[in-house]
Amino acid sequence: MKAVEVPVQNHDFVSGLLDFITRSPTPFHAVAVMVERLLQAGFTRLQESDAWMLEQGGLCGRFFITRNDSSIIAFRLTGPLTEHGIHMVGAHTDSPCLRVKPNPVLAAGKYLQLGVEVYGGALLNPWFDRDLSLAGRVSFIDADNHIAHRLIDWHKAIAVIPSLAIHLDREVNDKRSINRQTDLPPVLMRQDGGMAEDGTAFHALLLARVNEEMPDDLPAAARILDYELSFYDMQAPAVVGLQDDFIAAARLDNLLSCYTGLMALIADEHGHNALLVCNDHEEVGSMSAAGAQGNFLKSVLSRLCGSDEAMARMMATSMMMSVDNAHAVHPNFADRHDQNHGPVINEGPVIKVNANQRYATNSETGAMFRQWCAAAGVPVQSFVVRSDMACGSTIGPITASELGVRTVDVGVPTWAMHSIRELAGCQDAYNLYRVLLHYFAN
């Protein structure tokens, strides 16, 4: 197994991760940042609509492709795919959040509020009393009468969901429940004159923001057509703990895996054939053109192989590592874990196992991951959900069944998963990066 040089200190890696999360409030922004890093590293952008002039059999090079601006595949080819296969890493760009509705304006009373949908399995209590901003993709007609799209981000706290005072709800600490329709609309501002509930005034706010962020060399936006906007917490990611043990941030699930996979792919130019896929919509079931149940990855691999025969031969020698955060044992709720399978933060990445195939790991792929961890000098842990509790899932089983590829489900131990602010270990993030370097290289 080829040795791989890695940085001695994880400080720079963790700092880069925090910056990536800060710049990625939505899946669209995360993909945009990844595209920027790939271009800087010398990767070539491909378009799905173009003919790919890639020579089959002796293909070499570094490329990437996006779909819906929210999913991305990047790959490095160093030798024949049918002979050597390809080592793949899968992650997802989306996280639970509050999405703005198409006709969102709630103009009752003296305040402007926006109606929201809960995206994914969000932990809702932590969304109250936070400084919220708004970001996403806006589609519009420009001054040349063309449909165009733009990413926007207010970059400041523009909204809040205030809690009801305990004096008006004396049982809140014992019996609190949240009505998603009536309790969650954020407050944006006081208004005296009122705002039309048909959304025209909100579109005017969006139009102004789009044009503020529009480069001078592009036509101005003239009329808003549609949008996908999400509220997010303005509190910056941070390293916390008395000994700087932890990373506290929004969207660690699963931007931590996206960043780790990206940096490992970029770091080594001459290892094994390697691919990173980061899909959108994992948190809502992956059933979309940009999700893992769509044909994005299969389509790209089929085009690289050139025939069904070549595709089948490549899959037989390939591997998929589904990288998604795992549940660390919570010191206040240790009884929620199987007593023999309670991952501890900063004691290594976790192999996730489920007999009912909610995770795709089997004994063969688990053994291979343990071998890569040993080669990287990284400890490894196991997670199995309690037998009397339901188990979550990942893109691992979806990809394994769609492609017929050997798959292992792994991730770093995390607290407060799906909260507005999650917690993971600094050393775990760095150790996962070290393992992925070995995986991509061999």
UniProtKB/TrEMBL annotation:
One of its GO terms (biological process) is proteolysis. It is an enzyme of class 3 (hydrolase). GO terms for cellular component: cytoplasm. Its cofactor is Zn(2+). InterPro entries: Peptidase_M18, Peptidase_M18_dom2. One of its GO terms (molecular function) is aminopeptidase activity. Keywords: Aminopeptidase, Hydrolase, Metal-binding, Metalloprotease, Protease, Zinc. Its EC number is 3.4.11.-. NCBIfam families: PRK02813.1 (NF002759). Belongs to the peptidase M18 family. PANTHER family: ASPARTYL AMINOPEPTIDASE. This is M18 family aminopeptidase. It comes from Mariprofundus erugo.
